[in-house]
Please model this.
Amino acid sequence: MTEQRGLDDDVVLYAELAAELSGAPRPRDVVLADHGLDEDAWAEIDSRWQDRLSVALASAAEGIPPLVAAHAEAFARAQHSLGGVPMPLARFAEATAIVQRGGDVGAGLARLGVDLAAYLTASRHYTTLAAHDRAVADALRAAMSGVPQR
Model:
């Protein structure tokens, strides 16, 4: 399966398929079949990438690691081209609190029902908006102040 090999090795291909699956107007099994995959094969690929992204993020001394940045950029581009919408601001604030606490970020986000790709896409969306719109910046600050930082 050439397609699967590319998905295992290429963060851009993985991010594009993840974005397509996250907002696909077509049935999930059809999208997967178009890529030569079934649900089990996708689950294995997705799990490996989520682990790699979590490890990269957790091991970064500061800033966003190149692998995570490449994934976020590819996911955001693909989601934008598909007309995807990021998560609500309150959920983004909850996810941000999990990321800021550190530890196993992937597991923390999973408990919230958010994957790393969706979080990174929402982060890019809201931080870009907040930089240009004071009302969004104020709403983001208010949402973050209401989330326990534990």
Notes: The two ends are 45 Å apart (CA to CA). The mean pLDDT is 81. The CA atoms of residues 1 and 36 lie 7 Å apart. The first helix runs from residue 2 to 9.
